[in-house]
């Protein structure tokens, strides 16, 4: 370690600056002559200490800064090392340890900005000197700033009542937090409630899900609002104000016990409405309950088909049948306000619409089904009581499962939906078990990456299910041979055998991929979070912040973030709940002080800044006719400060004088 | 000539697929994940019309004709590399023997290809005499495949005879009828075993 300290030069009234340059092993020192940079920095006005050190971020490195501050009465610190993303906080803390305000510090990124991106050592060293000079010029003007603390409301909102929302809500409620769970449908349970069995253990989905559903219903800390949607979210981390729309179900939830007498009594003697829960494979009445374990176990009246809701002219036999007077046709849509500190979004996915891949004949041939339809078909409480039957009631002798429908396809969706291989294996097993049919799996690649997943694939292989590697080109009823007559024929290259095959089957199952909910775009705007180009909600960091979003206090879990299976969904829901708990239990959030503020006397009230703010942090004070920035919402992006025509918006740490002297420093050579 | 290369359902024989899984060596073929290790490790796969991996897939899918008429069965040198390297513990070499026997029984092996002919003549001679006479086996093999080659080999044959390495007279064991009874009993017990499965 070469010391270039205290040569006794005068600082001429400038703040006393300590400069440190890091070798970062050979990451920086391999390209940049760090000794030369340290010597150079020493000559700059105000610099009283200039050192180079192997690893500034190490404990001795940090200790060096703290000690120098005391010994040399340093008033400003500059560290030239890696990205501020990695160690700005480390060095701020070191400065604080030495008794300095942590914002009397500036970091220079000479690794990502110089040593990693240049090969010419001399030029890279020159550039490092320029960057360091800029930081030294700027740091003189730094001001002491304080981090602000805002309290966090301990109540949590969970949006979406699938397995992710259920698990997150239960975790939070078990930790003693008050949770409001908002679900759009009449019952919680989501897609998992529709599944028959779950891979790879083949335990029944309802058996593992319904206990959690009833736990939600009976938990003293959970308020369950089904048939409701979040309409508006105001506020910021720690204190969100949420508006929830509660749709009328025309049933008094607290009175209904789910006896279903009203359903039997409905004037519709025959069920005529396609049952959405059974994927339209059965019919229901206008007054219905989705499935026997629906939670809450409360019937619901569908306003689109109920004669009384539509016309008001009905005998209302349902009302007569209800001995608890729970049916109430006067119910209106309600808007309810809610105050929470954090939000967990678990709004789930939508299965791909196979009509967008018309070559597979969904909707054209009655023998073509989606995977979710088959889940209902093989389910004992489904439309056929678990019997695998084609739409015209035949027992299929051969069934073909086509993988990657709406996945791995530039024409529909590019991504792999991650769960289809495994659920196809599961359905192959169930179909074979229920019907004894020959089952063919047509796959591109078999993806079984999970605990006991590969073993499940092997189990299916040994069960004698056919695995044909090749993407089916088309499903057709055009027979070319006698045995193809009356069948659906799948034309596929058996790439393992090396020839094209035509495989006749009675039933085709399309393993449809997972896509974002149709209204994911609206939902994301309501909660002010981002999404990727495919429409799934964007996490803050794919590896290190997978359940956080760019909006503090809003977390995501489950398939709304990306396709994932039940174990991963539950794990992620637990993680989202833990992140929310971390905020709630800390009781406050610390805000970076690099926010903007308005110089009121100079603001002309032009409102230019308001629509530009990506965090909707700026509002207009109508009485004063001035812009007003909410410091809690402000993320310090600086857009408003740059756009303000009168220069009346100032951003902490990025004041004009600071930026100009930084520029001056870069160009001073 | 252009050849149509598409398979209809009629070219499949599900019974053959079932039979294949019942053979010694065939028990595990359903577990095959088609990784191709067998083909990669095989020293003669470069000469095969279907690689061992392909053959296993064709067999379990029931493409009987393609499997039994393949040269692959007869090119297999029984080195057991595939069996050693298989990640799913499939006994590929044993399976090849099962396929060879079936091809022989159905007489669908490639005609005039020396390996199956040699195997057939060898076993026929053992069954008959209890001993093999190389001169006769080789001569018959050449006659049945490419008799012109026999002429080319006569020089070598005569030299070998002169040094006592080849004999023209077939030898025989005593008790040939007992041997035949033994072979019949072995065959019958195998049939019984297959039937009981």
Describe the overall structure:
The complex is a heterodimer of chains A (669) and B (197). In chain A, strand 1, helix 1 and strand 2 form a beta-alpha-beta unit. The relative contact order of chain A is 0.10. By secondary structure, chain A is an alpha/beta fold. A five-stranded parallel sheet of chain A has the order 10-7-6-18-29, with helices on one face. A five-stranded parallel sheet of chain A has the order 20-27-21-22-23. In chain A, strands 2-1-3-4 form a four-stranded parallel sheet, sandwiched between helices. Chain A has five domains: 123 residues, Rossmann fold (3-Layer(aba) Sandwich), CATH 3.40.50; 183 residues, FAD/NAD(P)-binding domain, CATH 3.50.50.60; 61 residues, no CATH class; 166 residues, FAD/NAD(P)-binding domain, CATH 3.50.50; 57 residues, Alpha-Beta Plaits (2-Layer Sandwich). In chain A, helix 2 packs across helix 3. The N terminus of chain A is likely disordered. In chain B, helix 8 packs antiparallel against helix 9 and helix 9 runs antiparallel to helix 10. With 197 residues, chain B is mostly helical. Chain B is built from eleven helices and one strand; from the N terminus they run E-H-H-H-H-H-H-H-H-H-H-H. The model of chain B has no long low-confidence stretch (mean pLDDT 91). At the A-B interface, helix 13, strand 23 and strand 26 of A face strand 1 and helix 3 of B.
